[in-house]
Amino acid sequence: MTSIEHNLQEVRQRISAAAEHCGRNPQEITLIAVSKTKPVSAIEEAIAAGQTAFGENYVQEGVEKIQALARYSQIEWHFIGPLQSNKSRQVAEHFAWCHTVDRLRIALRLSEQRPVHLPPLNVLIQINISDEKSKSGIMLDALSELANAIATLPNLRLRGLMAIPAPESDYSRQCAVYQKMADALAELKHQYPDVDTLSLGMSDDMTAAIAAGSTMVRIGTAIFGARNTTTYTQQ
Ligand SMILES: *Cc1c(COP(=O)(O)O)cnc(C)c1O
Asked: Is 136 touching ligand 1 by the criterion CB < 6 Å?
């Protein structure tokens, strides 16, 4: 067994344990393997171990990998990094999901640029749940306006919400923050029948996120090992 295969098994076990702990079905939770900065060969190892959903943060790097791995048609690519308008076309053309929509301008571009032969791009609205001025995402009080606008766009499918909460060592305070995301998702679900996704939880906060109802956890280091570079070089 390769170490990536081994790590994937361990992460899947942790997801199952966290789900069972709060009475949820582990099948409801999708593991996104975050492969940023990691080479194509590492992704292929994960594919061989049965992993199908991958997350990338940088547009150019992500597109290079998608093209290099195009023969694996079962892979679902998730864009999870900050998105600038001048890069939206590449996301619209190559990814199945975008987790980081935080303004109407980006949503309009993604819808316009989504190729007609592809199904609608699945989008999540990124929420700035820990109220930090420097991070991306919108405040919860701006959610309904942006959701209303996105729901009318023909080539996007609004699927739910995403957040990257600030690190919090106290479990009960962490859960209180995550509950706000769960409540916002429940409200959104009432209005939009396609909404079914909460992208919340990374290596350190997976348990609290799953307890709050997360349906997608994004895990990088625990699968692929530490990132010793911040950029990717094609090989
Ligand atoms: C890098 C990243 C992850 C994965 O982080 P790890 O600490 O490597 O598990 C998850 N979500 C987002 C948005 C990221 O940028």
From this structure: no
* Residue 34 phi, psi dihedral angles, 5° rounding: -85, 110
Please state the atom number of ligand 1 nearest to the C-alpha of residue 100. 13
Hey, where are the domains in the chain? 3-224
Identify which of 7, 14, 34 to mutate to test ligand 1's pocket (most ligand atoms within 8 A of the CB): 34
pLDDT tens for 200-220 read 999 889 999 999 999 999 999
pLDDT in tens, 14-60: 999 999 999 999 999 999 999 999 999 999 999 999 999 999 999 99
Q: Which residues contact 96 (CB under 8 A, 6 or more apart)?
A: 76, 77, 78, 119, 121, 122
Q: What is the pLDDT of residues 112-124, one digit of tens each?
A: 999 999 999 999 9
Label residue 82 exposed, middle or buried (CB < 10 Å: 0-12, 13-18, 19+): middle
Atom of ligand 1 nearest to the CA of 221: 8
3-class DSSP string for 76-105:
EEEECCCCCHHHHHHHHHHCCEEEEECCHH
CATH architecture for residues 3-224: Alpha-Beta Barrel (3.20)
